[in-house]
Amino acid sequence: MQKKISIAIHGGAGTILKSEMTPELEALYTQGLKDALVAGYKLLEEGASSTEAVIAAVAALEDNILFNAGRGAVFTKTGMHEMDASVMEGKDLGAGAVAGVKNVRNPVKLAAAVMRNSDHVFLSGEGAAEFARQQQMQFEKDEYFFSQFRYDQWQAIKHSDVYALDHSKENDPLQKEKKFGTVGAVACDAAGNVAAATSTGGMTNKKFGRIGDTPVIGAGTYAHNHTCAISCTGHGELFIKAVAAYDVSCLMAYRKLSLHDAMNIVVNDKLVKIGGEGGMIGVDGTGNIAMLFNSAGMYRAAKSSDGTQVVAIYE
Fold it and tell me: Is 96 annotated as a binding residue?
C-alpha cells in the first residue's frame, strides 16, 4: 500500500524578525523555500526515494545565494569558504558526511557519494576534496561563492576573535542577534522509508577548521525508519553535546513518544537547559511532519500528499 509522502525543509533558524525584513527579501526567501520544496516533493510524487528527495531539496538551497550553504556559504577567518554536509537514510542506516570542503558546488551530493561509493561515513578536508574529484563532483571557483552581504559581514569582524553565527548586524559584533545558517530536508517516501540531509557554510570568521553539528551523524542529522528523520539548525556546539537528532529518535524508540512530543522535549527543554538555540525539522515513517524551534524564527516549509502545505519564516 502506498503511504503518505511528505517532505520538510529548513533554511536556518535564529533571530529572524519581520521588523527587520524588507518585503522584497521576504519574498526572495519565501520563493527560495518553495523552489527547494517543489524540487524534493516532485521526486517523491514520481516515486523516487526519500534519499533522492532530500538531496534534491538541499542542493536547491545550496544553489541559492540567500542561504548559508553551498553558494551562499559564509567567510572563514582566512576569507575562505569551508562547507559541511551529511545525508542519512532510515532504511539501513546508510550515512555519508563531509567537513571542511572547499569549492565543491553541492556538498550534499558529495556526502551522498561518500555514503554510496566509499566504505566510509565521514571524510574531511583535502581527503574529501580528492574523493570529490574521483567522483567527478562539480567544483566552482571562489568567485562563485562570493556574496557582498557575506563579505561585508566578515569584514566587520575579521580583525576580532568574534565569530558570527550568521547574518549579524555590523554594529553588533557580540551577536545579540543570532542566526544559524544551515539548510536541511527530511522526507518520507511512498514505501515508508525516511531520510535526512543537512548542509552548511558554518560560522562567519570561524577558525581552526571549526566543525559544527551539521555533518555529525546523530547530532545534526539522523534517520531511522522505525522512528524518524531529523535535520537540525542551531548553535552547533550545543547540538553536538546534546546529540540532538539522535535523542529525538531515542525518545521515540524507548519512551514511545510521538515525533512532535520527542522533538518538543529536545528543542524546548533539553537544548534550552544548556543554552542551545535553534530548531529542527522531522518526519516519521507514516509521513507525519514536525518543525520546532526555540528561536525567534526558522526558515521552513513542508508538503504532504494529504494536502498539507506550509511555507513560513517567523514564529
Answer: no
